[in-house]
Amino acid sequence: MGSGLLILNGPNLNMLGRRQPEIYGRETLSDIESACKLHGAELGLSVDFRQTNSEGELVGWIQEAAGVADAVIINAGAYTHTSVALFDALLLLDMPIIEVHLSNIYRRESFRHRSYVSGAATGVICGLGSRGYLLAMDAVAAMLAEDRQRPEDRQ
Ligand code: DQA
Questions:
Q1: Under CATH, what is the fold of the domain 3-153?
Q2: Smallest Cα–Cα separation from 113: which of 105, 121, 122?
């Protein structure tokens, strides 16, 4: 059986395609979801892809991932820069967590330079557009495969 990957998207990412395309590109979130599902099939990862505008719902989904998902990829949108609650929830998870941003948050306004998610993430990918999601999936697949080979190395 393949591993289960939860891909979480936060506020305003449902507006991709129409939202500041010069920054975020013309792809819609549904385009990104399709690409992730296709890539998941190639990697042997089942993909549960979700979006919400609600911080509480994101926290709930992260709590539910414990013991169910094998890894989480998260683009928390603007909550990245504000949410201690998301940081605390992510700390509950003993699994790879990859933070993704379409844009390079370090090249933008200074309020985007702080990420609460990074403090709980295994790794961060930003500035590579939707390709970042696929690269995060490659990283997760490699980590889970390594983990299966060397279970004694798990932290
Ligand atoms: C974003 C970057 C955030 O600063 C912003 O609030 C978003 C999208 C990105 O994917 O580049 O909503 O997470």
A1: Rossmann fold (3.40.50)
A2: 105
* Exposed/middle/buried for residue 27 (C-beta within 10 Å: 0-12, 13-18, 19+): middle
Residue of 75, 108, 118, 128 to test ligand 1 pocket, by largest number of atoms within 8 Å of CB: 75
φ, ψ (nearest 5 deg) of residue 99:
-90, 130
Per-residue pLDDT of the chain (155 residues), as tens digits, is 578 999 999 999 999 999 999 999 999 999 999 999 999 999 999 999 999 999 999 999 999 999 899 999 999 999 999 999 999 999 999 999 999 999 999 999 999 999 999 999 999 999 999 999 999 999 999 999 998 887 565 55
Residues 6+ apart with CB under 8 A from 73: 5, 6, 7, 8, 97, 98, 100, 133, 136, 137, 140
Mutate to test the pocket of ligand 1, among 19, 105, 128 (most ligand atoms within 8 A of CB): 105
Give residue limits of the domains in the chain. Answer: 3-153
